[in-house]
């Protein structure tokens, strides 16, 4: 359980389903972890649950450059270096057709899901140790379209482009950059999407999603965390510029 011994990781969206599961796994494998999120109460609760001196948190909006610089500097101050960056924060937006989509929600989705990833790469990677790893959370929605989720789909496609460029630009320092593409996961985000699609019967929306997954179920956050752990470890040190799909066969 020392896969990440002496490694320091930043996790944005650190108190959410996938972020929290990944932080737990990182800590179990010897890493020191900085959790980043916008809601201090959620971050504090997560820290209390972990009860581990190797984890701290930083309140920041990933869509703001000053906040991004802040969580980078706080990580370096607290832990002295950055080896792993799980660029994970994201929001779902609304479930509406493009013709009906509210512009203000479009702006929010792009700000968090795309600009947040860009700013994270811009300010974190230059401070990372040589041979470090950046993992960006995309989605199966970064590989195909889904009706009603236009801005989310656009943002998740766009981060693949950022990943590919960042992988090339940082290859000389052996910093690898990859995206992970989960299908539906049992998290708050999917509960919100289900409720938006079918307000009176969200369980029917879940059944509809599950019907399109050959494995017949959603992923658990811990299953995504296992993939992120592999991409963060030295076992993946020759993997960069790739899209890692983890979807139970959904887009096969």
Automatic annotation (TrEMBL):
Record-listed E.C. numbers: 1.1.1.-
Keyword Oxidoreductase in record: yes
Presence of the UniProt keyword NAD in the record: no
Pfam families from the UniProt entry: adh_short_C2
CDD domains: SDR_c
Family annotation (InterPro entries): NAD(P)-bd_dom_sf, Sc_DH/Rdtase_CS, SDR_fam
SUPFAM superfamilies, alphabetized: NAD(P)-binding Rossmann-fold domains
Domain of life per record: Bacteria
Keywords assigned: Oxidoreductase
GO molecular function: oxidoreductase activity
Family affiliation: Belongs to the short-chain dehydrogenases/reductases (SDR) family.
NCBIfam families: PRK07231.1 (NF005559)
Protein name in UniProt: SDR family NAD(P)-dependent oxidoreductase
């Amino acid at each position: 359980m020392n896969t990440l011994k002496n490694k320091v990781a930043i996790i944005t969206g650190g108190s959410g389903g996938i972020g929290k599961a990944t932080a737990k796994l990182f800590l179990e494998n010897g890493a020191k972890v900085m959790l980043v999120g916008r809601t201090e109460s959620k971050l504090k609760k997560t820290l209390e649950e972990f009860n581990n001196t190797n984890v701290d948190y930083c309140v920041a909006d990933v869509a703001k450059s000053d906040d991004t610089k802040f969580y980078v500097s706080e990580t370096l101050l607290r832990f002295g270096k950055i080896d792993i960056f799980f660029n994970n924060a994201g929001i779902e937006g609304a479930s509406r057709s493009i013709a009906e989509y509210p512009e203000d929600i479009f702006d929010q989705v792009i700000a968090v899901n795309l600009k947040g990833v860009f700013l994270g790469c811009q300010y974190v990677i230059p401070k990372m140790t040589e041979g470090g790893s950046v993992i960006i959370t995309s989605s199966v929605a970064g590989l195909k379209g889904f009706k009603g989720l236009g801005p989310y789909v656009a943002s998740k496609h766009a981060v693949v482009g950022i990943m590919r460029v960042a992988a090339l630009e940082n290859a000389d320092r052996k910093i690898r950059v990859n995206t992970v593409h989960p299908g539906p996961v049992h998290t708050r985000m999917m509960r919100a999407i289900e409720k938006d699609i079918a307000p009176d019967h969200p369980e029917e929306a879940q059944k509809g999603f599950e019907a399109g997954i050959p494995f017949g179920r959603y992923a658990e956050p811990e299953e995504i965390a296992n993939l992120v752990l592999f991409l963060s470890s030295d076992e993946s040190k020759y993997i960069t510029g790739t899209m890692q799909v983890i979807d139970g066969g959904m887009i096969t």
